[in-house]
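Lab notebook, design round three. We kept the backbone fixed and only want residue identities now. Task for the bench partner: fill in a sequence for the structure below.
Input structure tokens:
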């Protein structure tokens, strides 16, 4: 164990909204699939569940506004398929994400991914963006007892890196994801969706950025306590 176990040694990225501009795909797919089954959602409705696992999203709405169509687990699969299709057709990297990866690697920090998305979507995204080789560890909350905002997927990522959570920095866009990282005991950079930027819950993040384009050497030094 290093002499200072809380020294920053790794960065754990969320995926949707951080590495890839996929949050609109989720909203499109949810509105389409729920709509076919008699539940009309707005984009604002969809933002309420940003960062949650898709099975939790469909159960969330079934508990509040039950429909008579297909069951929640079937809808979850259809929504996931819709997002994967959109990633292949229109998926683009988030501004600044590749530069952030290079910045962290240049400081000798290890990289991991901890996403609420299913393994099938994670594989689709990182292969589409050609990012697989950058990550030492890839974790999906699909394999955890609980999804974000619970810390499980972040704790698993830290454990697989062989590090204490205090030695890890999370990069998140959603409130649920930020809460998961903080509950795990990690530092967290939040990059909120513009529509959610004013939400006071983001104030628990260690740093709030409008875009990863703003992340530079000086910002990193402050996070590393230099």
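Proposed sequence:
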């Amino acid at each position: 164990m290093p002499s200072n176990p809380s020294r920053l040694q790794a960065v754990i990225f969320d995926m949707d909204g951080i590495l890839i501009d996929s949050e609109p795909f989720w909203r499109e797919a949810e509105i389409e699939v729920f709509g076919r089954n008699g539940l009309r959602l707005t984009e604002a409705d969809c933002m309420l569940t940003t960062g949650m696992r898709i099975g939790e999203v469909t159960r969330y709405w079934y508990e509040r506004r039950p429909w008579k169509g297909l069951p929640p687990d079937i809808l979850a699969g259809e929504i996931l398929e819709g997002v994967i299709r959109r990633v292949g057709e229109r998926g683009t990297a988030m501004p600044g994400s590749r530069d952030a990866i290079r910045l962290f690697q240049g400081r000798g920090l290890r990289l991991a991914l901890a996403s609420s998305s299913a393994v099938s979507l994670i594989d689709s995204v990182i292969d589409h963006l050609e990012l697989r080789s950058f990550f030492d560890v890839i974790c999906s909350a699909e394999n955890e007892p609980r999804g974000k905002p619970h810390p499980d997927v972040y704790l698993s990522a830290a454990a697989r890196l062989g590090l204490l959570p205090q030695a890890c920095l999370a990069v998140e866009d959603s409130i649920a994801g930020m809460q998961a990282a903080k509950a795990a005991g990690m530092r967290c950079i939040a990059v909120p969706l513009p529509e959610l930027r004013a939400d006071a819950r983001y104030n628990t993040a260690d740093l709030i950025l409008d875009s990863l384009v703003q992340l530079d050497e000086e910002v990193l030094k402050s996070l590393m306590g230099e």
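Keep this in mind before ordering anything: The radius of gyration is 17 Å.
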